[in-house]
Structure formats: C-alpha cells, structure tokens
C-alpha cells in the first residue's frame, strides 16, 4: 500500500501549489485538517506563507492538530517537512507582529532580516544558492543547488548542529534545518522547478 502523506490544511496560502508538486513526484497526498488522519499518516508536510503569527494562530485554531503532530512526529517518528513559514513554526518563537510561541521543536527564533548593506532589499526574493553545512543532518533530502526564496523573516537557530543548509542575502541566512526525522526548508520546493521536485522526491524516500 502506498504511503499516505498528510498535507496539513490550516489556511496556508501555498497549500495547493505544494499539493500539486507532491502529486507531480508521485506522492499519495491527503490534504487534511483532521488530527486523526495526521496521527495515521506515514509522512507529514506543513506548508506556510504569510506571517509567523497568522500561521501559528491558524494551526492552533484546529483543535487537537498540534497534539496530533507532536504524537506522530516526536513520538511516532514520522518524517516531517516544514516549508517556508511551516519551517519557521518549528522555532521556539517568532518576533513578527509581537512575540508568538512556535512549536519549539528546534530551538531558536524567527527575526526580521536586517542586512548591513542598505542596497540589499527585503524581502529576500528570487533564486539563490543552497549551501549544505558540513555533516548536516537532513542532507539526504536537501542537496546543494539553487532554489526560490520569498521571505522577510529568517530562522535564527540556537544550535548550529540543527542547520542543514545556508543561503546568503547580505548575511548568512538559514535555508534548511534538520533534527532527526524533522526537516524544514525556508525555500519553496513547489516554486523551485527541477531542484524543488528533486527535494520532494528525496523527502518521500527519506528514512531515518
């Protein structure tokens, strides 16, 4: 029986494009806001665009969803992929529109990008390099290449060992995080053409 990929529907704007990209690489996707489906899923994908605060509130508004994610991922060991703000929600907190608690699965906080060079514009938008960190966790999924980014806030990770990849936009910015069966990417695989589809394919094949 084909694995079931739970794509969590909590009002994130990139839900449909992520769904289409997963289907394009052969995934059996269940778009769901049902915690019970998440508990039974083989793999879980959390998309996300917009502000940290609105995404955190949207996820918290689904009764039992955070608990189901915690049970399936942290206890059950299901591979997890967070995309863009879905990655940022792994943090301890976000500092966009005040301080908002995150899932706190990977320590750190989500802060505004503040390049030292005023010629560097925010948001960080467009194609940029993804550089793999030495001995990076999650490197079986995220490889060196070029991906599409669109964000004004970045994940400042507490433990450098949790940083799987970096990019550069006037300063080093975290492009991917990984710890155990938990993976997050700041870039948009669904907008990154062949590189993005290859990343999603490797996620589907990823075994911890």
TrEMBL record:
GO terms for molecular function: glutaminase activity; imidazoleglycerol-phosphate synthase activity; lyase activity. CDD domains: GATase1_IGP_Synthase. Its EC number is 4.3.2.10, 3.5.1.2. InterPro entries: Class_I_gatase-like, GATASE, Imidazole-glycPsynth_HisH. It comes from the Bacteria. It catalyses: L-glutamine + H2O = L-glutamate + NH4(+); 5-[(5-phospho-1-deoxy-D-ribulos-1-ylimino)methylamino]-1-(5-phospho-beta-D-ribosyl)imidazole-4-carboxamide + L-glutamine = D-erythro-1-(imidazol-4-yl)glycerol 3-phosphate + 5-amino-1-(5-phospho-beta-D-ribosyl)imidazole-4-carboxamide + L-glutamate + H(+). Keywords: Amino-acid biosynthesis, Cytoplasm, Glutamine amidotransferase, Histidine biosynthesis, Hydrolase, Lyase. It is found in: Cytoplasm. GO terms for cellular component: cytoplasm. The active site is at 84 (nucleophile), 188, 190. Coiled coil: none annotated. IGPS catalyzes the conversion of PRFAR and glutamine to IGP, AICAR and glutamate. The HisH subunit catalyzes the hydrolysis of glutamine to glutamate and ammonia as part of the synthesis of IGP and AICAR. The resulting ammonia molecule is channeled to the active site of HisF. This is Imidazole glycerol phosphate synthase subunit HisH. It comes from Erythrobacter insulae. The lineage of its organism: Bacteria, Pseudomonadati, Pseudomonadota, Alphaproteobacteria, Sphingomonadales.
